[in-house]
Amino acid sequence: MNQPLTVDLNCDMGESFGAYRLGHDAAILPYVTSANIACGFHAGDPAVMRQTVRLALQHQVAIGAHPGLPDLVGFGRREMAVSPQEAYDLVVYQMGALGGFLTAEGGKLHHVKPHGALYNMAAVNAPLAEAIAEAAYRVNPELVLYGLAGSELTKAGTRIGLRVAHEVFADRTYQPDGTLTSRRLPDALLTTAEEAARQVVRMVKEGTVRAQQGSDVAIRADTICLHGDGAHALEFARHIHQTLQSQGISLQATFSKAAQ
């Protein structure tokens, strides 16, 4: 008998800052199985981190650190010329910040997923990817490393001995080499929940995604990312959750006890 298909649905959260509110965390949490919580560098302040950790624990979703570049103004989506050592230090520092709130609230860190430009840089830059993987491993070798499917980051995580979740994106378009279309280019984002759901189901069931140029690209989908800051994030989360269930695809966090 074939093993039933299972996938993790993750969402970037805790990305408000001070008086500025971003995302629909409380409304989206019932539809996801893991949350990537901003750690203060690209978004998130101490109060937001505490509140988001509490919300995620209430909904019993797996909690991950979402470290980014120190760029509040650019929301961590602008590249910076950081060295591998600087990347290591940035990741360890931010994991420690979120880890403190998790300890205080009785929770446990499940995974690490870099944010924005740091994520995209690590997908193609092997030394940077190795530094990020080492940071996660040194903090806790039991953590799961989330990275772009088939990227330098997932390869680095596997080499160092971490459990790795190959990530795909519900609302982003792809290039023929398996990388994401740059947000600076037209059609980088899928704009309807129906489009996103079709792409997700194909990635999970068939292991392929249609590149922007029309070719099919092989892809591994362990976890699916939803962007909590999107204008239609809640609609996307609800529709994708319902579509996956209707297709007989179970939802649970990667490497959760239920999945083992």
From TrEMBL:
Transmembrane segments: none annotated. Signal peptide: none annotated. This is 5-oxoprolinase subunit A. It catalyses: 5-oxo-L-proline + ATP + 2 H2O = L-glutamate + ADP + phosphate + H(+). Belongs to the LamB/PxpA family. One of its GO terms (molecular function) is 5-oxoprolinase (ATP-hydrolyzing) activity. GO terms for biological process: carbohydrate metabolic process. It comes from the Bacteria. It is an enzyme of class 3 (hydrolase). Pfam families: LamB_YcsF. Its EC number is 3.5.2.9. Catalyzes the cleavage of 5-oxoproline to form L-glutamate coupled to the hydrolysis of ATP to ADP and inorganic phosphate. Forms a complex composed of PxpA, PxpB and PxpC. Keywords: ATP-binding, Hydrolase, Nucleotide-binding.
